[in-house]
Amino acid sequence: MKRLRLAGALACAAGLLAALPALAPASVQVGSSGWQWGNPLPQGNTVRAMSFAGTTGYAAGDFGTLLRTTDGGSTWSGLLSGTFTDLTTVQAIDGDSLFAGGGCVARRSDDGGATFRRVAFTPAESSCRQPLASGWFVNEQTGFLALADGTIFRTDNNGDTFAQKTPLPNAGVPGGQPVPQDLRFLTDQIGVGATAGGKIYRTTDGANSWALVSDTNRAVHSFAFVDASNGFAVGDGSLFLATTDGGATWTAKALGGIPPTNLRSIRCASATLCVMTTDQGTALVRTADGGATGKLITPSPDPIFATGFASPTRIAAAGATGATTVSDDAGLNFTPIGGRLSGSYSRVRAGGQAGTAFATGDNGSLAKTIDGGKTWTRGNVSTSEDVVDVAFPTALIGYALDSSGALFRTNDGGATWKTLDTGTTARPFEVAAPSPSVVILVGPTGLRRSTDGGESFSTVTDRDVVKAKLDGIDRAGGALFASGARDLLRSTDRGKTWTPLHKPGRVLNVDFLDARNGYFLAQGGSLWRTANAGRKWSKLLGVGTERAYGMAFSSKSKGYLVIDRFGDSGQRSGFLLHTTDAGATWHPQFVVSTPILGSGIAATSSGTDYLLGGESSLLFTTTSGEAGKSSELSITTKKRKLGKAAGITVTGRLSPGSSNQLVTVSYLPPGSSHWQHRTAKTSSTGTYTTSWRVRRGTNRFVAQWAGDFRSKGDGSGLLTVKVG
Question: At CB < 8 A and 24+ separation, what contacts does 651-655 make?
Fold first, then answer.
């Protein structure tokens, strides 16, 4: 059996690790789209579980995070899990085969995570009566799953089908549920299960029956076996149990030298050397004598929730906000992998040179990348105020604006800064620099302009500008667009003169690609497009929501809208809508667990886009955020013209066809600006059906799908049903 060759694999790994490269972070793709992490490194989602087969290991965590390493944890790559469900368990069955799951989601791969298949222990991943508690595969074909109510499933065909076995016996905890905590099988017949009630059960007939072999009245959370005989179990109150007969009997060990601690997981290199995580994650517990004594080790300033042995001396550990660290002396000392910038950030701006971008932050902080977002460094503008905006017309020359209204200039890429006199006590909102010498300050009323690199400023005296309440400026090739809630102005001479433009509503955001082509996001969430500098605006109804609050376009056809909810998502998170056809259709991308700020997206014509999630997560993409194969989503109804209000069915098909995929159908009633949403599950052929009541006027529908671990998402065209 592959599982029982652990000791040999660890011994071989020890020699391999001696030749590992120096510690170096690598870009990690998020689990549900084509965005990659730039800060923190390796990535920013909390890791909950880790498992190794030699130097190849896997880690799983929040927001669908699934990672792979082939060098014992020095570098990691992101795997496309196709979910934003928190993953709580992972097993390296061997170097290429893995199992991962959490909630109503489970995945299997036999090619190192290059492709996945769904482990369908529940009909749908969106909801289930009982979530996954634990799982363990004896080999690539045979595995066992435990659900939260004690249900045990067995598969002998790699998770394609399951047979229900005898559940773990009632442990007598409140509610009468055994609440399984961990499941571990040594063969396809012999296995053990632990419960929150403090009981350990053992089976010798493939889960057809269970026998109670230990009862401590303290929750048992995790098992680790080093061979067919020797294993350990840990739990609350420093519970440490050992077995030398394959789990038939268990003996408590003192684990002396540490205070009472709730132990959450255990990983072992031998019958004497183990490391354990705790519920708070503040320290690891290390034992080198099989549990007789323990020692607290602090591997990171951040909580650590997962660990694993890549060799008898090499340990990798990870935890909160992606903090990752490794040890090469069996857990006595640890070295961090990657890292993160300090400070909180409020905006991301692309630089004037390809591959450069900046994030403005608190207390004078300014983050910078010069390699297309792969790595970021923190610098400081010469101020203790928050930096609110920045403009770099070249790689070296730049301007920074702080919250007090002070303006600064750098000639060396941010290494040093000079304070400039803006000639006013007003506090501008934004700064633009169409050239190294021309600088424009925006708001709160009107514009101020410099033509000598900020050495002196004068008020722009155009009558349409001087009293305008302005708060934003957009550079589009050789044109500039200044905007406020009630104003939209254009300049084609670097801000010297300005012309007012017609607009379709109150301004929330504008993004122009050149002097004529641009997009307008109105207060209230409606989106518009113009191809003639605002003489005519076309409303883009394929968006399917009025919840967009940020926007960025890289070309006339490609761009993003920022939203914080989609479909059945019950919590605010970092979502985008993406278009590749000038706003006709849109599909969602799930990026980060924290909401993206409206000013947290920057799209460039050079092929690299940047994103700020929450206050410190910095990501980039060179694929417009896409990952996976193409998909196609259609929408239709039997009759598109009706004489009177009626009930209708709106149907469609997802191709390639796949069952239980969640398609969100959105409906805009006549005369309303608020979209209604319903989520439908696809059939095995990819079809879906929703029912609606349409009323007199023009009724509009769109369908959208977020994608999965095989395919990227898609959005339908607009379906119009006219009544009366």
Answer: 651/687, 651/688, 651/689, 651/690, 652/687, 652/688, 652/703, 652/716, 653/685, 653/686, 653/687, 653/688, 654/682, 654/686, 654/687, 654/688, 654/705, 654/714, 655/631, 655/686
Q: What angle do CA 339, 345, 349 make, to 5 degrees?
A: 105
Residues across the chain: 724
What pLDDT, in 10s, does the model give residues 387-423?
999 999 999 999 999 999 999 999 999 999 999 999 9
Q: What is the percent of the chain with per-residue pLDDT over 90, rounded to a whole number?
A: 85
- The rounded distance, in Å, linking the Cα atoms of 61 and 51 is 12
CB–CB of 381/417 below 8 Å?
yes
Whether the per-residue pLDDT at 535 is higher than 50: the answer is yes
* Alpha-carbon dihedral sign for residues 21, 25, 26, 29: positive
What is the DSSP secondary-structure string of 652-663? EEEES--TT-EE
HSE of 560 in the Cβ direction (CA atoms, 13 Å)? 31
Q: How far apart are CA 459 and CA 424, in angstroms?
A: 10
DSSP type of residue 469: B
| Residue recorded with tokens 């998020």 | 30
Count of C-beta atoms within a 10 Å radius of residue 208: 12
User: Phi, psi (5° rounding) for residue 14?
Assistant: -60, -40
Residue 178 is predicted with a pLDDT of 54
Residue whose pair of structure tokens reads 């992490």 in the numeric block: 37
Longest dimension (CA), the chain: 89
Q: What is the pTM of this model?
A: 0.89
Q: What are phi and psi of 366, to 5 degrees?
A: -145, 115
Element containing residue 401 per DSSP (H, E): strand 398-402
